[in-house]
Amino acid sequence: MSKLLLIAIVFLSIQVQAQKYFTRTGLVRFFSEAPLENIEATNNQASCIVDAETGELVSKILLKAFEFEKALMQEHFNENYVESDKYPQAVLKAKVENIEELNLSTQLEQKVILIGELSIKDVTRQVKIEGKVKNTNGVLNASAFFIIRPEEYNIAIPRAVRNNIAQEIEVSVTFNLEAFKR
């Protein structure tokens, strides 16, 4: 009887561990199309953890890790716009609204809906983000695309360059989340 109990405990602990997925190398890209110059930056140091049972998700993005084509753009982004010394991270805390409908073991792409809060600088706003997820050999491949408006997050654009930056910034994310192992 004790062997059966031990096997059940081991099996259950494996199940619990497999219910969380994690990455530290998520890719976040933002793009601003403007008449004078397009602005694009990428960051491959975004972390994300997802509880597949509850649908809870937390993602943190180190703002200084965004890389721009031009060093001056990167400097302005960090010092003037997001003030990354004062506000080092953007944080998304959300829940997968349709978690009960998902089969996270299938290789078929499925639509996901995240409802939660996005915090940038000193502002936290409610967001609804649509994305996609599929399982490839035990890795959850998740992606999403959404729009943010800088003024909604207290990101002031100086008048001199206001026409160089779009009022809406396109954000795309790609996470390859592996089963969390303790």
Provide tags for this entry.
single chain, 182 residues, Lipocalin, eight-stranded antiparallel β-barrel, 2 helices, 9 strands, 49% strand, disordered N terminus
Task: Describe what you observe in this structure.
The chain has 182 residues and is mainly beta. 15% of the residues lie in helices and 49% in strands. It contains two helices and nine strands. The chain has an eight-stranded antiparallel β-barrel.
Mean pLDDT level = 88
Task: Quote the CATH topology.
Answer: Lipocalin
Tell me the major beta sheet.
8 strands, antiparallel, barrel
**Count of structural domains:** 1
| Topology, number of strands | 9
Low-confidence parts: 1-18
From the alpha-carbon coordinates, what is the Rg to the nearest angstrom?
19 Å
Structural class: mainly beta
CATH class: Mainly Beta
Strand order of the largest sheet: 1-2-3-5-6-7-8-9
Note the gap between the termini. 27 Å
Q: Quick one: overall form? A: elongated
Order of helices and strands: HEEEEHEEEEE
CATH architecture: Beta Barrel
Q: What's the total helix number?
A: 2
Give helix % range: 10-25%
Strand content: over 45%
CATH superfamily: Lipid/polyisoprenoid-binding, YceI-like
Structure, briefly:
The chain is mainly beta and 182 residues long. It has two helices and nine strands; from the N terminus they run H-E-E-E-E-H-E-E-E-E-E. The chain has one domain (20-179): Lipid/polyisoprenoid-binding, YceI-like (Lipocalin).
